[in-house]
Amino acid sequence: xxxxxxxxxxxxxxxxxxxxxxxxxxxxxxxxxxxxxxxxxxxxxxxxxxxxxxxxxxxxxxxxxxxxxxxxxxxxxxxxxxxxxxxxxxxxxxxxxxxxxxxxxxxxxxxxxxxxxxxxxxxxxxxxxxxxxxxxxxxxxxxxxxxxxxxxxxxxxxxxxxxxxxxxxxxxxxxxxxxxxxxxxxxxxxxxxxxxxxxxxxxxxxxxxxxxxxxxxxxxxxxxxxxxxxxxxxxxxxxxxxxxxxxxxxxxxxxxxxxxxxxxxxxxxxxxxxxxxxxxxxxxxxxxxxxxxxxxxxxxxxxxxxxxxxxxxxxxxxxxxxxxxxxxxxxxxxxxxxxxxxxxxxxxxxxxxxxxxxxxxxxxxxxxxxxxxxxxxxxxxxxxxxxxxxxxxxxxxxxxxxxxxxxxxxxxxxxxxxxxxxxxxxxxxxxxxxxxxxxxxxxxxxxxxxxxxxxxxxxxxxxx
Length: 464
Known about the structure:
Helix content is 64%, strand content 1%. By secondary structure, the chain is an all-alpha fold. Residues 165-169, 183-194, 420-427 and 458-464 have low confidence and may be disordered. One of its GO terms (molecular function) is RNA polymerase I core binding.
């Protein structure tokens, strides 16, 4: 009977098959149809690409309204995604060429910046469902890289002016200090914690961050987090580290680390530190890495005080060596900006972690052996270049702890006092980039509170 079908009708029939929206099919019909698709895909040199494209097209359900899924689609979404992923895995097991073609199809089908939120979320949610077992080994790195690229593109299209209106000339740290001055009981986070909404890119990013974090949590529960983290770390190194002042996408690393603090959490901290210490790395990567590690150690509640001190020692020792080489005039390629960035990172960390380090006598003894006085009083004058808000808070806490000789504080305070009269504070004021500043997206904000540290005067606290 099939041989009797006219060639034109045959092509029309195939076209109808490859454009079907499986979301409208009843369960029995759906099973039979997907079985047909997996069989067609296995026909040699015929319909593999068309079958894969049809399945990928169904990553997004019919959008009845502009930015929302119909209720019936929401109720079927999990089941549909499961069947799509199972069909793609079956085809990949049957046809060795399928994963390579699927990577290309997903690449071409990825949501674009101005696509609506519902389409983006559905596509990414279904796509990440493929990142399991053997399928994940074949295309997992590509899938995650595409997702991170999308997160980054959305992120860079959000400005701080959109987020904190009227406060965009200040850093989050400065606003935290203002909150503390206004509310000394340590609960005054309302001024800083103005959650961000109303911007289309931010709302899309917010929802996607939930999807990605839920995927990472699922990986941890299934014992796959170590593999996923290795892939994420490489993607972060290639695609996120050097992005100028990204605001939110880097928090997927923070969340992944929080799921396994003893392995992923430590690995990320030392990974960033090694990038900073590596003289073969470019200056931008080194500056960004030291900003990241400073912010990470400050904010990650799951990183222990002894780990914080171990990394601080590496950074302080590097600063000490840099000062010595400057005194000798033997620095081959001096880069003071990296030095200033390292000093600022050290002071920033101690603003958050000094008290917790001081709670342990052995760590306190090690801390007091570090050469803070030599570095901060060096002729390069880091106290004049680093952000005054950080320097002042650091000096206040250091003075209370007796970290330096008394004579140093008056000299340091004189230096800061003179620079505070400048319009922007400091000589060649350093960038106010602290990658893990408080998280300001509404929906995904619920993921981070128990893992995140904020600045308080008195006892250590977590984000409320």
